Amino acid sequence: MAKLINGKEVSAQVKARVAAETEELKKKGIVPGLAVILVGDDPASQVYVRNKKRACEEVGFLSEEYRLAADVTQDELLSLIESLNARSDISGILVQLPLPKHLDEKAVLNVISPLKDVDAFQPVNVGRIMIGDYHFLPCTPAGVMELLKSADVDLCGKRAVVIGRSNIVGKPMAMLLMHENATVTICHSRTKDLPSVCREADVLVAAIGKAKFVTADFVKPGAAVIDVGMNRDENGKLCGDVDFDSVEPVAGCITPVPGGVGPMTIAMLMQNTLMAAKIQNGMIK
Ligand SMILES: Nc1nc2c(c(=O)[nH]1)N[C@@H](CN(C=O)c1ccc(C(=O)N[C@@H](CCC(=O)O)C(=O)O)cc1)CN2
User: Fold this and answer.
1) Which domains does the chain have, with CATH numbers?
2) What is the pLDDT of residue 285?
3) pLDDT the model gives residue 63
4) Residue 17 among known ligand-binding residues
5) Is the whole model's pTM more than 0.90, yes or no?
């Protein structure tokens, strides 16, 4: 039976570390602040934004929430971000994704100050990750790395396969695994004989957005299996990209959904916001 990697536990540890550091910063008169912008009324996004606010309260940050109508114009959204860029009490700015179709996501992310870009989606920060000289990492891949560390998964010289090539998860995930000296393959919808490529992996990260797509025949016995997916099954129940019941007897360790990568995304956002506050107060160059 695989060892279960508990994202709730590890995320609580990360948030406790952030809370302790925040208490120290407050003694110096510095209060980290996060502004979250939500456009429209997507129910899942509303839950995530609410949870981000709750996490800010838990670690002692100031938090502001901006709920904009689904038909907000590009110009209105850009001017809100520009006004937040200029505020010294706001350390981090996050635009909840996905955005409604009429908004240009790239242009929106581009206008966030790289120093306040706690999602690490702004092109300057994406480039810094490429060259391994970064302050911020995208929250989900950073959370995966933290989970692998918590499970003592050694990456050096190991084969890692990432299924999914999104800008938010797949591509940065591959980069972070490579920075830790894994040999990385990125797979996607056009990959030929996907199960056999995945069976080469000592570490398999599933980020495809298809419910229970990864079955036991994708998994090398003893592999670490990380499930980034967040889907609903045929009964409306939350499930990942990994068919947990079939994979769990084969894997060495595995993350569940819920309670795996998801909670880490928000914990790493708190870590990035703390980092942003330190940068803006000249504590980190
Ligand atoms: N600007 C961003 N937008 C989005 C991001 C992001 O990192 N930045 N990631 C996802 C959504 N997301 C955070 O925003 C997120 C998704 C899931 C969870 C989570 O804790 N999931 C729980 C289950 C929650 C439930 O019951 O519905 C779990 O896995 O245990 C946190 C954050 C897309 N957008």
Assistant:
1) 28-114 (3.40.50.10860), 139-262 (3.40.50.720)
2) 85
3) 98
4) no
5) yes
Model confidence pLDDT, tens digit, residues 128-149: 999 999 999 999 999 999 999 9
The one catalytic residue in 52, 116, 171, 220 is 52
Judge contact between 92 and 118, C-beta under 8 A.
Answer: yes
Please tell me the distance between residue 157's alpha carbon and the centre of ligand 1 in angstroms. Answer: 31
Q: Whose CA is closest to atom 10 on ligand 1?
A: 97
Q: What is the pLDDT of residues 233-261, one digit of tens each?
A: 999 999 999 999 999 999 999 999 999 99
DSSP symbols for 61-120: -EEEEEEE-TT--HHHHHHHHHHHHT-TT--EEEE-SSPPTTS-HHHHHHHS-TTTBTT-
Residue that has been written with the tokens 């505020």 in this structure: 87
What angle is formed at CA 177 by the lines to CA 45 and CA 258, rounded to 5 degrees? 35
Q: Is 164 labeled as ligand-binding?
A: yes
| Residue identifier of the C-alpha nearest atom 31 of ligand 1 | 262
Region of 11 on the Ramachandran plot (φ > 0 left; ψ -120 to 50 alpha; else beta): alpha
